[in-house]
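STRUCTURE:
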């Protein structure tokens, strides 16, 4: 934090100097944009330092000021997501809702933090009293339905997050860069927000009971989405480059085929292979078939010989007549 404060003083001087000269020529304007970006970066890092040191109110104020002052082109920094995390840590759900009302707009880009925080707020109002058995008998209330739809929306955006929130997969340190809707974003979100889900009584239980229902709404997720664009098929390759090699990259959940279908497919393939080999090499396949039959028949002959030596001859005579 001390180093960032020193850097901020230098960056602020450069910013003010270039601000006065930015209209002289294109080079000065480009330098001013550079100084602006550097100052925004340092201020954001100072706010993150305050968050890590537990000075939440100071961090919230700094993030709010940044969110107001940053030009729209710098929205890629996702400063509002840092603000959401600080407000959730403070338990200030009213302000969280206000931030979501501004940034969870259809015209603005989405993220796992936006979608899952919206789902958390909806779940917060019903999760403590939710029971899957009771809901299955009487049906979902209006509030429960809204919470379930919010969870389905979040899972559609990033289907990798629930397994980390429910601790079905081991969580690792988030990477330096993330890919929207990918496993790297899911790790980053769960790393910073798992405690917020645990703090809301029953929220993880509601997520556990409902998140897989999303996939019934998306029979062909790579071709057609429900609320978002189809899920991109290139995320797995990009995530493998962003994440460490020891981590098992989460792939978009696929429907498992029933055992009967797999067994039938394997049997048909084996039969077709035998037919092809028999057609191409009839003599060799005949020898192999006779050898296999001899192997199968050998234990039967052995059992019959033992039975003939142990059982009385009269009993075997009666059985042969039957």
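SEQUENCE:
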């Amino acid at each position: 934090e001390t180093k960032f404060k020193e850097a901020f003083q230098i960056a602020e001087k450069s910013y003010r100097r270039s601000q006065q000269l930015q209209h002289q020529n294109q080079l000065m304007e480009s330098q001013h944009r550079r100084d602006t970006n550097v100052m925004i970066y340092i201020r954001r890092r100072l706010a993150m330092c305050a968050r890590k040191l537990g000075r939440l109110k100071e961090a919230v104020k700094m993030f709010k000021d940044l969110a107001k002052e940053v030009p729209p082109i710098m929205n890629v920094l996702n400063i509002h997501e840092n603000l959401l995390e600080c407000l959730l840590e403070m338990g200030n759900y009213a302000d969280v809702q206000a931030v979501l009302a501004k940034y969870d707009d259809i015209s603005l880009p989405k993220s796992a933090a936006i979608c899952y925080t919206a789902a958390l707020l909806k779940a917060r109002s019903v999760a403590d009293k939710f029971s899957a058995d009771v809901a299955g008998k009487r049906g979902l209330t209006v509030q429960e339905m809204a919470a379930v739809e919010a969870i389905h929306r979040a899972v559609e955006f990033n289907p990798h997050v629930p397994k980390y929130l429910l601790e079905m997969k081991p969580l690792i340190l988030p990477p330096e860069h993330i890919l929207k809707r990918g496993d790297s974003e899911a790790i980053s979100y769960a790393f910073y927000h798992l405690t917020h889900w645990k703090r809301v009584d029953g929220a993880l239980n509601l997520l556990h009971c409902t998140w897989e229902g999303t996939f019934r709404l998306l029979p062909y997720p790579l071709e057609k989405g429900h609320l978002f664009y189809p899920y991109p098929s290139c995320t797995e390759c990009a995530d493998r480059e962003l994440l460490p090699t020891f981590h098992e990259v989460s792939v978009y959940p696929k429907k498992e085929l029933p055992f009967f279908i797999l067994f039938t497919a394997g049997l048909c393939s084996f039969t077709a292979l035998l037919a092809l080999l028999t057609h191409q090499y009839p003599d060799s396949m005949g020898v192999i078939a006779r050898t296999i039959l001899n192997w199968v028949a050998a234990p039967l002959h052995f059992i019959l010989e033992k039975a003939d030596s142990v059982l009385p001859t009269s009993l075997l005579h009666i059985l042969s007549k039957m």
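REMARK: The mean pLDDT is 85.
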